[in-house]
Here is the input.
Amino acid sequence: MIIGKNKQAVIKNIQKAAGEEQFHQKVEIDDPDLSAAEEKRILKRFPNRSHAMDYRLKNKAARGIVDAVTWGVNRKTEFTGLEYLRQIRTGAVVTSNHFNPLDNTAVRAAVRKAGKKHLYIVSQAGNFAMKGVVGFVMNYADTIPLGRDQEYMTTAFPDIIKKLLGQGQYVLIYPEQEMWFNYRKPRPPKRGAYYYAARFQAPVLSCFVEIVEIKEKENEEFNKVRYVVHILPPIFPDPQKSVRENSVIMMQKDYEQKKQAYEKYYARKLQYDFEPGDIAGWRYKWRN
Here is the structure.
């Protein structure tokens, strides 16, 4: 499913960022652009609202919307490595490649096979300023804002992650940071997801989502795609190592697993020279 317009401009931004090895660069052109003050207001009101009756009712409604979308998007989704889910008996930090606003539904469908009713997702605070149904879901469907405010990021945010992991929940944190539309390749991760896994002694549930093109037109620019969720061996912190040591080791291992998955399932070596085939379903050859 394609959300948003101007994908040709997005693809140009992806090509430029990949060529400059700026793998965490924002490439979307229509994302909300919040001031520091606007972002702080979103972050400030978030931690204490979950106890309000109004929030609980909206959370239930938003979960219903997410359940319906998850079913609709993933009717043809396949799964491998489900046996690894049985190795995790605690909360976990989930990592996956990020290429579509709805790619989290594929991960959600996978973890439900482990008996998890909910998947909590960390997302940029700017997404909480979206309007309409998308904005409603972002604000009320188990989504946790990430922002620049130091007070929030050093107190409230880690407390939320710790609480959820302690309750045995799964928290999806995208280590690639920004979404690159239909980009097939795993990008080098940032350390944040692994820092929280190491800090709270939680395993990393490593996932790689393969994008399979369907020879059926989605629109004039793209063919339709479907997903294969590859659940990779979970990565556990070493209690004898420091938080930093564990976070670096876990990050490196997760990236290597995703790299190996890419090379296995796409049958090609991972390198970052841009090619039209890097964008799944794209119907047009690259044009300058």
